[in-house]
Amino acid sequence: MEYHNIPPLYDEKSKILILGSFPSVKSREGQFFYHHPQNRYWKVMAAIFGCEVPDTIEAKKRMILSHHAAMWDVIASCEISGSSDSSIKNVVPNDIVGLLEKTDISRIYTNGGTAHKYYQKYMQQQIGWEDIMLPSTSPANAAWSLDRLIEAWRDKIVL
Q1: Is residue 3 within 8 Å of 94, Cβ to Cβ?
Q2: Which of 56, 72, 92, 125 could form an SS bridge with 8, CB 3.0 to 4.6 Å?
Q3: Whole-structure pTM over 0.85, yes or no?
Q4: DSSP string across 108-127
């Protein structure tokens, strides 16, 4: 069993929540979201926010919070082989409801199909909100170029 070791990134001003599925091995090792250098999440978010790509964890936190966003993952613990979303079993979800109670979040986005699937399975009925699925920023989603990801995310994210 692997456990999520990264606390949610949010503050009371957060208006949108972006959920991943479960942290990759690199993210668990680095103890921060999208820590794998090939993941395009930070480049996509910087493009949407119109700022430089942050290069430290503190700069990443500042960028997200200054744009009233929040980040976490759907899964608190699971069985997983390496970073393979397709191997996920025995899911225990995070307390998304508890997070929502501490913020002004009014929209939930999921980063990729796996996050979307587990949000729908474990959270949607409890929360009562549809998530907005975005194409995965993972390097495994090689069919999507960086420019195409930025365009898709920009079209759907409402700040």
Answers
A1: no
A2: 72
A3: yes
A4: EEEESHHHHHHHHHHTHHHH
